[in-house]
Specification:
Chain lengths: 705, 554
């Protein structure tokens, strides 16, 4: 799956909300079956206490079924084994999805050959001696030479030259990117391809620890360690398993006293039905799938811990540029002075900007076209014109149009410069323009003044263009969602407080940090963390690195420096800062899925008691028949149905485990109400229906009567 | 008065009285457990026992104090009983046998008050007053101290200190238990309860038969028996004895006293953590189970199957005619839900399903409202489990009152919920395996099994009431149940204090809209569900073979 070209924040507000993963194809189950069987190895199973108990139970029933063979014993034995296999299948399917991706990555790795520079390298060394070695032999501090058409052999920083690089191998994005020495775009990744020019790269990673290596380990799940939450949940599940184990083991002497000694098969069946197998079976698949959902969004989390932390984040630090606003200032509207038509102003503004190649200049042309229907004329169309390009000295751009012997000069630029120009040309700017400029400035915008001068007449001011940061469409709604989730958003910007406030108000962030230096950012993170909050941020520059390392969730942009990538605990391959919001949602969804399935698993027990207990003891204590409220056909069919239900529910929930439960940003109360309703109450009721349905079929199996 | 109406009025009066005391008693306890000031007499005691009253202990030190104090108490009580024939007021009774003395020592130190002896025929007045009754005060105070440590764990930040056991112990005893006991002892005496130092008086009845009328300092011991949820009766018949519970008024008052601390502690909790709504949520869960249990039990006892019961109008076997059905069932469910174990009716003679309700009450882990202190800490541990599952469902690392519930916290909570069922089930299983021990069962069939199940459930949960009918005076039973009581009391305390320590160390997480609210009805429902399914249903197979097998008819 590739990332949608539209940034989530720009897409239709409501479609973007739902976090979902890929779908499960039935074929995947079949493909993963051999892996699932291989995982039956007790040394592997041991890591999952709940399912390990089921496996031991299956061994016991197998032994028992061989010694005292009966249809019932074999049916139970087979379904118990299936329960274990289904659990392994869930994990295998989750892992399988990453395998294909890992294969592609591995191929890029093995092919690479490095041209290592022999001896010390100095800037501007020109021709140097080089040797060819396998990429795997590179080590920290080596310098390598890469030319057009060659693969970059390892992670590093460009120290000389600039090149366009195809990073599609890791980002899936086919458009090449520029990498150059110095600055924040110097990092290159091993396995990517240089398309043009020649660069010298200083290797910054040890062999076997490159970005690609880590990616392979991540997508394969090999480096997967249990996350803190998973450990805590595992402890609870293990405790429940032990309690039920004791309940079942001690039941035998009690049953013997009652004159209803139970077979091993029945006792194991009761145990497996009671221990939390549903969540035990799906727990690790949920974790792997959570990481995978991030990978599908082109985000690499360096640890599962980071993904979990994302769900806990209570403060988001968002860079204004790129996240909240588009990267640059754009013309938002034209305000004419009295006596001037707005169309006249728009026309003049457009003409004066035709020669302005800056993004601001182009945005004026576009605004005039979109809002006032003025077609953007090319410079060639207006032949008899002299174009005045924008320079840092004049801070103005414009055009001198020769019409019928007269010259019409139009200028657009910084208020001070244009006003001076008007005065120099005999005009009087007047007080009105001062007020307009002031108004725009105080609202956080940048005013550009437009003026014209017909030869022989005094120059006059036409009006003002309001340049401002344009807040991304839909971002406000996103922030409202975050607020519902209890997350505070803080906008980080280098702008002055006035401008920052205006944008903060427009975007609906909770707070902002203006004129922010890296130190300010760091201080803010520390302060938030001091209050017990978890902080997430994005960053790309080297000066972001300390803050990225300090933040609980630090998402480095792939375009950033290796220092930044090293410091963060996630890397966004698309370099889209807005994705931070999605990351938080995925983190939450991961935890919710675990909680929901745990609740479901525990709630299931009630129905199973009502199926199995009367089946075990109604023969000696006939009154217990009243507990058979599902009216199951016979003791054997009742126990069989409960076990089959238990196994099938695992298979049935694999897609949910992989996809994650439905998640919409909302308050904790609303989430709890919904999930408790669906998975708690649902988990209470559903097995009654499920076991009854299975019993309706199973009762016709000969030998189960 | 119509018995139904009388029962309803008693229950309503009880609810009203409990509601009225909830606030003042809860806040008084909160003040007592947080105040920095010592009374002069307290300072004297601290000097005497060599304790710095202003010094807070780590959870480990607190635990060591609890264990050392319990060990010393068991030894003291054991020696006291073994030597009673050499002391005053022994009434001529010989030394208590070693097995019984061990069992009784463990029983009173653990706030269980399981009695494998008959009070009026075994213990002299001095042992009753200076040995058993003293533990009635102290064992209650220790448990209140432990729950205070847990609450401090929730409330305090970045510290390894959870309070000082000796201070908690002295303050709770001196400022709460003693004064209340004095006041209500006078009320009880006024209401007709016995209070003297007489030995048994031999009288000749009108019909010419001989009868022994035992005296004793009953009223003074009766208050703390209920108020500290102890339940150890002065007489063998416990609160069914007319000298120990003379009339319906004292009966009602005893029920009130055994419930009042446990139902007020959630207020203490709410006040101490600075959010009273948290306390209301906890008390609501307790009330749900208490009302449910009392209603069910009354319902089962009113149902009269069989000719004898129909003639009597209800299942009156084993119940005092003075009290009737409603007062007896209210007492029975309150005593089994609070780890008190005092009885005013024979639980063995309750209807099968009614008896099942009393066992199930104890199986819930004595948390609704539970014993003094122990009830609240049990409920809070279950709240931790409920918050953990619910917290995951709202997409955050679960946190309760701002404290994160990670691996360490869940380890202690899991061990806590694992301990009592393990002790009950293993104990019952072992007893049912040994043929010789089973011979102690009076009845056959499921009822006989219920007696064994009841005994282990009662001992492990530190309740102390008994399904009579099981002969528990043998060395095996005395030893086994003594161990069960000690494990059932001290292991959970270890885990609670460890939990308190790891909570206190944390830096709290500020609450936001994304934080799971733990004071709303939804959470009350969730916690009730966790109590019922995670704790209660563990015993479903065992219950099926006992009370359910007996009570469900073809």
């Amino acid at each position: 799956m590739t990332t949608p070209a539209v940034h989530p924040a720009e897409g239709p507000a409501h479609e973007a909300h739902r976090v979902s993963g890929g779908l499960l194809e039935p074929r995947q189950l079949l493909v993963s079956l051999p892996d699932a069987v291989r995982k039956l190895d007790p040394r592997v199973m041991f890591r999952n206490p709940v399912m390990f108990v089921v496996e031991i139970g299956s061994l016991l029933t197998t032994y028992s079924a061989i010694r005292h063979t009966s249809v019932f014993a074999w049916v139970i034995t087979v379904w118990l084994w299936l329960t274990v296999v289904f659990a392994n299948l869930a994990e295998a399917v989750a892992e399988g999805r990453g395998k294909a991706q890992a294969e592609t990555l591995r191929r890029t790795k093995t092919e690479a050959v490095a041209r290592r520079i022999v001896g010390p390298w100095r800037p501007g060394a020109g021709e140097v001696a080089e040797e060819l070695i396998p990429a795997a032999g590179l080590t920290l501090g080596d310098h390598v030479l890469v030319e057009a058409g060659q693969l970059i052999p390892g992670d590093g920083d460009v120290v000389e030259g600039a090149a366009s690089v195809d990073e599609s191998a890791i980002t899936g994005e086919s458009a090449p990117v520029i990498r150059e020495s110095g600055g924040d775009r110097s990092a290159v990744t091993g396995g990517t391809k240089v398309l043009s020019d020649r660069i010298v790269v200083k290797i910054t990673s040890k062999p076997g620890e490159t970005f690609i290596d880590r990616m392979i380990a991540l997508v394969e799940g090999a480096a997967r360690q249990k996350t803190p939450n998973e450990i805590a949940l595992n402890i609870l599940l293990a405790a429940l398993t032990i309690v039920f184990l004791l309940a079942v083991v001690t039941l035998q002497p009690m049953a013997t006293y009652a004159g209803a000694e139970q077979t091993i098969v029945v006792l194991v069946a009761l145990l497996v039905a009671l221990i939390p197998t549903t969540i035990g079976a799906l727990l690790s698949a949920i974790g792997i799938a959570g990481m995978d959902r991030l990978v599908q969004r082109n985000v690499l989390a360096m640890s599962g811990r980071a993904v979990e932390a994302a769900g806990d984040v209570s403060t988001l630090l968002l860079d204004k540029t790129g996240t909240i606003t588009f990267g640059n200032r754009q013309a938002a509207d034209f305000t004419p002075v009295s006596g001037t038509e707005v169309n006249q102003l728009a026309d003049a503004a457009q003409l004066s900007s035709l020669a302005d190649e800056t993004p601001e200049g182009r945005s004026i042309v576009v605004l005039a076209k979109e809002k006032y229907g003025l077609r953007a004329r090319t410079q060639a169309e207006i032949g008899h014109a002299e174009w005045v390009e924008f320079t840092a000295q004049t801070r103005m751009s414009g055009a001198d149009l020769h019409e019928d012997g007269t010259v019409r000069r139009i200028r657009k630029g910084a208020a001070g410069s244009v006003v001076t120009w008007v005065e120099e040309n005999g005009g009087r700017p007047g007080e009105e323009i001062g007020a307009l400029v002031e108004g725009i400035s105080s609202a956080g915008g940048t005013p550009l003044v437009v003026a014209e001068h017909h030869s022989g007449e005094p120059a006059r001011v036409l009006g003002v263009i309001n340049l401002k940061d344009v807040v991304k469409h839909g971002i406000r709604e996103r922030f409202e969602d975050l607020r519902l989730m209890g997350i505070r958003t803080v906008m980080i910007t280098g702008d002055n407080p006035l401008t920052a406030r205006a944008i903060a108000d427009e975007a609906g962030v909770d707070d902002f940090l203006a004129e922010a230096t890296p130190e300010d950012k760091m201080a803010l993170i520390r302060q938030e963390q001091g209050g017990g909050k978890l902080v997430a941020m994005t960053g790309d520059g080297t000066n972001d690195a300390p803050a990225l390392a300090q933040a609980d969730v630090g998402v480095a942009m792939n375009t950033g420096t290796s220092a930044a990538k090293e410091a963060g605990n996630m890397v966004d391959l698309d370099s889209n800062p807005t994705k931070l919001i999605e990351i938080v949602e995925i983190g939450k969804q991961l935890l919710i899925t675990r909680g929901a399935l745990t609740t479901f698993s525990i709630a299931n027990d009630v129905a199973k008691y009502f199926a199995i207990i009367p089946a075990m003891f109604a023969s000696v204590y006939p009154g217990l028949k009243h507990l058979n409220i599902m009216a199951l056909h016979s003791p054997t069919s009742a126990i069989t149905s409960a076990i089959i239900f238990n196994a099938l529910v695992i298979i049935g929930l694999i897609p949910l485990a992989l996809r994650g439960v439905r998640y919409r940003p909302s308050s904790a109360s609303a989430l709890l109400r919904r999930n408790l309703g669906v998975y708690g109450v649902g988990g209470l009721i559903m097995p009654f229906a499920g076991i009854k349905l299975i019993d309706l079929v199973v009762q016709f199996v000969p030998g189960l009567h | 008065m119509d018995p139904t109406l009388a029962g309803a009025l008693q229950a309503l009066a009880l609810v009203a009285a409990l509601a009225l005391s909830h606030r003042p008693l809860g806040d008084y306890l909160a003040h007592l457990l947080t105040s920095a000031k010592h009374l002069r007499v307290e300072r004297g005691i601290y000097r005497l026992i060599g304790v710095n009253g202003d010094f807070d202990q780590t959870w480990m030190a607190y635990l060591r104090s609890v264990l050392a104090f319990s060990a010393a108490s068991v030894l003291f009580l054991y020696a006291f009983q073994r030597l009673q024939n050499h002391l005053w007021l022994s009434l001529g009774f010989p030394a208590v046998g070693p097995a019984t003395a061990w069992n009784t020592a463990a029983s009173f130190v653990t706030n269980t008050n399981w009695q494998s002896y008959s009070g009026e025929a075994t213990m002299g007045h001095l042992v009753q007053m200076a040995g058993l009754a003293v533990q009635n005060f102290l064992s209650a105070a220790v448990a209140i101290g432990v729950v205070a440590a847990l609450i401090r764990g929730f409330h305090r930040n970045r510290t390894d200190r959870v309070g000082n056991l000796w201070v908690d112990l002295v303050r709770v005893t001196l400022r709460l238990l003693l004064p209340v006991s004095v006041v209500f002892a006078i009320v009880f005496v006024a209401a007709g309860m016995v209070e003297n130092l007489h030995a048994a008086a031999q009288v000749t009845t009108l019909s010419g038969g001989g009868q022994s009328l035992p005296g004793g300092p009953v009223a003074s011991q009766e208050v703390i028996k209920e108020f500290g949820t102890n339940g150890g009766g002065f007489y063998n018949a416990n609160s069914a004895h007319p000298f120990e519970n003379p009339n319906p008024f004292t009966n009602w008052l005893e029920i009130y006293l055994l419930l009042v601390i446990s139902f007020s502690l959630p207020r203490t909790f709410g006040t101490m953590v600075g959010d009273r709504r948290q306390g209301y949520a906890i008390v609501a869960v307790m009330a749900v189970f208490w009302v449910g249990s009392a209603s069910l039990l009354t319902f089962f006892e009113w149902q009269h199957n069989g000719t004898a019961l129909q003639a009597a109008g209800a299942a009156m076997e084993g119940k005092e005619v003075r009290f009737g059905i409603a007062a007896s069932t209210l007492f029975a469910s309150s005593t089994t839900l609070t780890s008190t174990g005092a009885v005013d009716a024979a639980h063995d003679s309750l209807s099968p399903l009614g008896g099942g309700v009393t066992v199930f009450d104890m199986m819930l882990g004595e948390i609704a409202p539970g014993g003094t202190g122990s009830g609240l800490y049990g409920m809070l541990v279950l709240a931790v489990v409920a918050v953990f599952v619910a917290g995951l469902m709202v997409g955050r690392t679960p946190e309760y009152l701002g404290k994160k519930l990670g691996g360490r916290e869940m380890k202690f909570a899991s061990l806590y919920i694992l301990t009592t069922p393990a002790i009950v089930l293993i104990g019952t299983g072992v007893a049912m395996t040994f043929r010789g021990e089973r011979a102690a069962i009076l009845n056959s069939g499921p009822h006989g099994f219920s007696e064994v199940l009841y005994a282990f459930t009662s001992a492990a949960n530190n309740n102390g009431s008994a399904f009579a009918g099981l002969t528990v005076t043998s060395t095996w039973w005395n030893t086994a149940l003594g161990l069960v009581m000690l494990f059932g009391r001290l292991l959970p305390m270890v885990f609670v204090l460890a939990l308190a320590g790891s909570l206190a160390r944390q830096q709290p997480v500020p609450a936001t809209a994304g934080t799971l609210p733990t004071h709303r009805p939804l959470f009350v429902g969730m916690l009730s569900g966790v109590v019922l399914i995670v704790v209660g249903l563990t015993y479903f197979p065992a219950l099926a073979l006992g009370p359910l097998a007996e009570g469900l008819h073809r």
